[in-house]
Amino acid sequence: MAEILIGVTGGIAAYKTATIVSQLCQRGHGVSVVMTESAMEFVGKSTFEALSGRPVRDSLFCSDKVHVHIELSRAADLFCIAPATANILSKAANGIADDLLSTIILSFDKTIIFAPAMNPVMWNKPVIQHNVRKLIEFGATIIHPDSGRTSCGEIGVGRMASPELILNEIEKNICTIQQ
Ligand SMILES: Cc1cc2nc3c(=O)[nH]c(=O)nc-3n(C[C@H](O)[C@H](O)[C@H](O)COP(=O)(O)O)c2cc1C
Fold first, then answer.
1. Is there a catalytic annotation at residue 62?
2. Which atom of ligand 1 is nearest to the CA of 158?
3. Is CB count within 10 Å lower at the N or C end of the chain?
């Protein structure tokens, strides 16, 4: 069993992450969830708190923990960001740490998995593809988005990979870590 940190950023696919958290907990893993401010526009903290049985963190500055980013980073075996917005991919690729989630990415020294989800035009922007390549070079795993109709009605590559595929990738990495 492993300690898994799930990062949720601001996209419609955030609701699918509830399935990922639920499944990981049912499989016996310890799961903590960190959300961006935008993510909370899509899914409430209470959903992830109920599923994980733990408080959801959304701020660097909280009254009960001074170094919340370091504590969460050190406690987890693996960090999976799903959905990963164009914004978080770009911040992570460029070392920007201006909120809790991005600061954890920078202070995390184990496996990081990104499951991007966005409009196909956004996904195909050279700057986003450049940032994705940078993240791969830096050692991150990218779960390629699926092709199809996105929530905005446009068709192309950009839908977040299925929760099953993301769960498989997490489990595969945990097995490698624990060998
Ligand atoms: C309805 C709606 C849906 C959105 N869906 C996405 C999305 O799927 N992917 C994405 O990269 N940005 C999406 N955005 C834009 C992000 O929420 C926005 O870039 C935000 O600043 C991301 O912040 P975060 O990365 O800190 O969560 C959406 C915005 C709205 C209003």
1. no
2. 8
3. C
